[in-house]
Amino acid sequence: TYEISIKKPKKEIPVQSNMYGVFFEDINFGADGGLYAELIKNRSFDFTNSPTMGWLTYGDVSVETTGAPFERNPNYLRLTNSGLLTGTGVINEGFRGIGVKEGEMYQLSFYARSIDSEAKNLRIELISSGAEIMAHVDMEVTSDDWGKYSVELSPAWTDPHAKLRIDLRSLGSIDLEHVSLFPEKTFKGRENGMRQDLAQALADLKPGIFRFPGGCIIEGNSLEMRYQWKNSVGPVENRPVLENRWNYEFQHRFTPDYFQSYGLGFYEYFLLCEDLGADALPVVNCGIACQYATEEVCEDLEPYIQDALDLIEFANGSVTSTWGKIRAEMGHPEPFNMKMIGIGNEQWGEDFPNHLEQFMKAIYAKYPDMLVIGSSGPSADGEQFDYLWDEMKRLDVDLVDEHYYKDPEWFLNSADRYDSYDRKGPKVFAGEYACHDHPQKKNSFYSALCEAAFMTGLERNADVVHLATYAPLFAHVDAWQWKPDMIWFDNLRLVKSANYYVQQLYAHHKGTRAMDLTWNKENLTGQDGLYASSVIDDEKDQLIIKIANTSKESKTVNFDFSKLKLDKNSGKQITLMGDLEVENTLDNPDWIVPTEKAISISGTTLKAELEPESFHVFVLK
Ligand code: AHR
Fold first, then answer.
1. CATH number of the domain at 2-14+515-620, please?
2. Which residues contact 304 (CB under 8 A, 6 or more apart)?
3. Which atom of ligand 1 is closest in space to residue 471's alpha carbon?
4. In this structure, which of 9, 145, 320, 594 has its CB flanked by the most CB atoms within 10 Å?
5. What are residue 111's phi and psi, to 5 degrees?
6. In the chain, which stretches have pLDDT less than 50?
7. Could you give the 3-state DSSP secondary structure of residue 304?
8. Three-class secondary structure assignment of 17-78
9. Would you call 560 helix, strand, or coil by DSSP?
């Protein structure tokens, strides 16, 4: 039996109320084709490598570039009656198909004009993967001025791989632009909103923080390809399309049709944070392109700094300020209450600290309470890492974003990582991490167990580690570039990985203060394969213990909390366990899920039997 003692630490260790959250990036079709509920790929015909990518055209269809209704998306299509029996029209393939459900309503909208004064008839159809017509509507385009047209479609059956067809049924020509199809049901019923099931999975995590929009896409392969938040606000039709930074061969996979519509833009991100109850953590480009690509450095940093200042004004400024007014016009006069901003992602060169310093000066001068987050580069160790940390300390930035995609051994050996961190230096934001269980990098239960064990060290050191987000978040099973990922999905379903459940267990049971948990007077950080930490939740009046048994033997533990002077008599034990190799899949989503049982406690000790290779959360009331 392992006698484990729990007592108050010498100095109070508060746990940040937003400590556990999510990191979002448009990678693996995470936004376009994923969370963003738009079902049409290349809706404005502006993919730069091919304006009709995602569209099958037949008959007489041309791409036009002058006279478009939205100047930042200059292409549109002209459909001309070909006189042939086969007609003229276009078919959109969606993002690896269009997922539609029987009986649900889908709203199609597009901009069109007749190019003579005659009205034009169109037939709109949802076509199944078996080429059958699932729903159709006939409609008229009545004007030779650009106008918005909308129709509703309700498919007769469910199909994850449907298509949308627009067929010209009149003589003459018609122009077509910004063809958009949304499910009527979006998360919280928002217009231009999020896919309901994916957003709900985020809400179910109860994230405290939401970091966006990446990741490498912030920096871009070149500076021209960086994410520019100003392009992502205002009317969706006029947000310029950008080639996604992940539109290249990676991990032996290639998705040449990966572009960002910016439909999920900064306004939508802030709104989503509000809907999720999470603090928004936007990250902006620091004037340097991605360290894995060109590493191009800007000649003039001033516009980049101005973008950061304007972003804060967009989020928090009054409705009379330049950018606050745009937020208000988009439908949110109240400020979004942004509290922190990340500068740069994973930069490792010498330019970064210098750029960061200039950002910090400008931001603190105007917004002294804003928390600024720097970076320690892509690796969690090494010379570069030490150099960057020294620089971050010199600059006295508020938090440092550390990333680690490491193997199981690293995670198990690093549970004490933060025990020795400087208590006077910047705080840590563990902004991207995941255990990579080689060689397949599966979302195996073993990877989740190693993360759970490691995270006891985050919790124990909550005075230093203020924020933590697993990465990446989403992956489309047919269009991913990177794994492992927390949530996998296809066009209609999703699966929560074992790693998701670990994050959820920590987020739901984060407590308000960390306790001192020791075995033989030492922190429990892997002795005989055991890892543990404990918190008190003052608001819920709970004592919470998290313990991972990574060994192959079952262990008997006896928690003694008599020194806390708490008298707990009931509670529950939540357990996550399974075969180490197993991962949840779309067809078998429940291989590894938490199970719960009631437990009773006598006085101030708790005895428990921990199965081999298992993770447990005890919640005592
Ligand atoms: O999460 C995937 C990528 O990993 C991110 O874009 C980047 O920050 C890191 O290298």
1. 2.60.40.1180
2. 284, 285, 286, 287, 298, 355, 359
3. 1
4. 594
5. -105, 140
6. none
7. helix
8. CCCEEEECCCCCCCCECCCECCCCCCCCCCCCCCCCCCEEEECEEEEECCCCCCCCCCCEEE
9. strand
Query: What is the H or E stretch that residue 597 is in?
Result: strand 595-600
Chain centroid, CA 252 distance in Å: 23
3-state DSSP call for residue 145? coil
Cα distance between residue 86 and residue 298, in whole Å: 52
State if residue 27 touches ligand 1 by the CB under 6 angstroms criterion.
Answer: yes
Has domain 20-36+187-490 been given CATH number 1.10.630.10?
Answer: no
Is the distance from CB of 3 to CB of 448 less than 8 angstroms? no
Domain 55-183 has CATH 2.60.120.260: yes
432 ligand 1 Cβ < 6 A? yes
The C-alpha atoms of residue 507 and residue 497 are separated, in whole angstroms, by 15
Q: What digits encode the pLDDT tens for the residues 20-60?
A: 999 999 999 999 999 999 999 999 999 988 999 999 999 99
Beta bridge pairs of residue 404: 433
Q: Which amino acid residue places its CA nearest to atom 8 of ligand 1? A: 215
242 CB contacts (<8 Å, ≥6 apart)?
A: 225, 227, 231, 259, 260, 262
175: three-class secondary structure by DSSP: strand
Dist. CA 310–CA 333, nearest whole Å: 16
Distance CA 237, CA 179 (A): 10
26, 27, 352, 469: residue to mutate for ligand 1 pocket, most atoms within 8 A of CB: 27
Rounded Cα–Cα distance for residues 477 and 29 (Å): 9
Check residue 378 and give its pLDDT.
Answer: 85
* Reported ipTM: 0.99
As to burial, measured by CB atoms within 10 angstroms (0-12 exposed, 13-18 middle, 19+ buried), residue 353 is buried
Ligand 1 atom closest to Cα of residue 345 = 8
Nearest to 283 by CA among 554, 467, 75, 527: 467
Ligand 1 centroid–CA 353 distance in Å is 20
For tokens 């385009």, the residue is 141
Q: Which among 538, 575, 545, 540 is positioned nearest to 561, based on CA atoms?
A: 545
Residues 276 and 193: their CA atoms lie apart, in Å, by 13
Handedness of CA 128, 133, 136, 141 (dihedral sign): positive
pLDDT of residue 348: 83
Domain coordinates in residue numbering, the chain: 2-14+515-620, 20-36+187-490, 55-183
Question: Which residue has the least CA distance to atom 1 on ligand 1?
Answer: 472
Count of CA atoms in the C-beta half-sphere (13 A) of 16: 21
Q: Quote the pLDDT of residue 291.
A: 86
Residues with a known catalytic role: 346
- Residue 178 near residue 70, CB atoms below 8 Å: yes
Please give the helix or strand (H or E) that residue 357 lies within, else none. helix 351-366
Start-to-end CA span in the chain (Å) = 24
- pLDDT value of residue 254: 83
* DSSP labels, 384-442: HHHHHHHHHHHHT-SEEEEEEEE-HHHHHHTTTGGGGS-TTSPEEEEEEEEE-BTTTTB
Do 324 and 316 touch, CB atoms closer than 8 A? yes
Position 600 scores a pLDDT of 85
Pocket-testing residue among 212, 250, 432, 481, ligand 1, by greatest number of atoms within 8 A of Cβ:
432
